[in-house]
């Protein structure tokens, strides 16, 4: 069965960077893209970007352009999301989610809490 | 950017009754609309895609309808495990993919 397992809780100071991982299993990793979605405390879902399955092309939400980098390691089936210049309002749970043909998100990781605090 | 608006923000329904949740798009998204369920402390789960197609393993009491700009998620015979937050998402025109702000379904 499809499974996405994410890295654990991170606590960072303002201005730092964080890199979250998402290890996929149960399917051919390069056949599907991986999206990153975040959820601030008590808030809704916000799409951050996508790394495609076939070529590893990236597409970022405009508000994160220049601050986010999404990469992948096809040898281990792991996707990564790095966010730089952290601010307190980046405190959120960060989810990876498999992209079903770049349409909807059919499987989700368990979430990686990131806390930004001085 | 397509803005998705869900209503109401919170709805209270008794177990065994029917719940109707609405989602409106700021412009037509065709049938490129998904619904997700999120329970406290859990990741979202895909319920419906293509506006009306249930995802694998989703009970038949969940149904989706609509096209264009108006969509509805109906949950019949509410079970205790159905009380959660529900989000709609459009994938017609991206980037960005956009979600509604969510509707909380609570027990009456």
Helical coverage of chain B, percent range? under 10%
Strand-residue proportion of chain A: over 45%
Shape of chain B: globular
* % residues in beta strands of chain B: over 45%
Tell me roughly what share of residues is in helical segments of chain A: under 10%
What form of chain A results from the Cα inertia axes? globular
In terms of per-residue confidence, which ranges of chain A show pLDDT below 50 for 5 or more consecutive residues?
A: none
Structural class of chain B: mainly beta
Distance between the termini of chain B: 36 Å
How are helices and strands ordered from N to C of chain A? Answer: EEEEEEEEEEE
**Overall pLDDT level of chain B:** 97
Low-confidence stretches of chain B: none
The description of the largest β-sheet of chain B is: 7 strands, mixed
Could you state the oligomeric state of the chains shown?
heterodimer
How large is the count of helical segments of chain B?
A: 0
Query: Which structural class best describes the helix and strand composition of chain A?
Result: mainly beta
What is the mean pLDDT of chain A? 96
Characterize the structure shown:
The complex is a heterodimer of chains A (118) and B (108). Chain A has 118 residues and is mainly beta. Helix content of chain A is 0%, strand content 51%. Chain A contains no helices and 11 strands. In chain A, the strands form 2 sheets. In chain A, strands 2, 4, 5, 6, 9, 10 and 11 form a 7-stranded mixed beta sheet that branches. Chain A is globular, with a radius of gyration of 13 Å. Chain B is mainly β and 108 residues long. In chain B, 0% of the residues lie in helices and 49% in strands. Chain B has strands at residues 4-7, 10-13, 19-25, 33-38, 45-49, 53-54, 62-67, 70-75, 85-90, 98-99, 103-107. In chain B, strands 2, 4, 5, 6, 9, 10 and 11 form a 7-stranded mixed beta sheet that branches. The mean pLDDT of chain B is 97. The A-B interface holds A 35, 37, 44-47, 49-50, 59-62, 95, 97, 100, 102-111 and B 32, 34, 36, 43-46, 49, 55, 87, 89, 91, 94-102.
């Amino acid at each position: 069965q499809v499974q996405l397992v994410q890295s654990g809780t991170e606590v960072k100071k303002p201005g730092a960077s964080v890199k979250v991982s998402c290890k996929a299993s149960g399917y051919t990793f390069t056949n599907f893209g991986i999206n990153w979605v975040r959820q601030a405390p008590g808030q809704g879902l916000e799409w951050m970007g996508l790394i495609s399955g076939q070529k590893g092309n990236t597409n970022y939400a405009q508000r994160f352009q220049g601050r986010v980098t999404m990469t992948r390691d096809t040898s281990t089936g792991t996707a990564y999301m790095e966010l730089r210049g952290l601010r307190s309002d980046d405190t959120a749970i960060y989810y990876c989610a498999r992209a079903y043909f770049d349409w909807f998100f059919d499987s989700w990781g368990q979430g990686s809490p990131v806390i930004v605090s001085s | 950017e397509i803005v998705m608006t869900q209503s109401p923000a919170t709805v209270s329904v008794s177990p065994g009754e029917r719940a109707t949740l609405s989602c409106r798009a700021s412009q037509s998204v065709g049938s490129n609309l998904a619904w997700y369920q999120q329970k406290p402390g859990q990741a979202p789960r895909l319920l419906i895609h293509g506006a009306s197609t249930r995802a694998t393993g989703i009970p038949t009491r969940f149904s989706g309808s609509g096209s264009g700009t108006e969509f509805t998620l109906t949950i019949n015979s509410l079970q205790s495990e159905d009380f959660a937050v529900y989000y709609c998402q459009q994938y017609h025109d991206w980037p960005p993919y956009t979600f509604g702000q969510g509707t909380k379904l609570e027990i009456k």
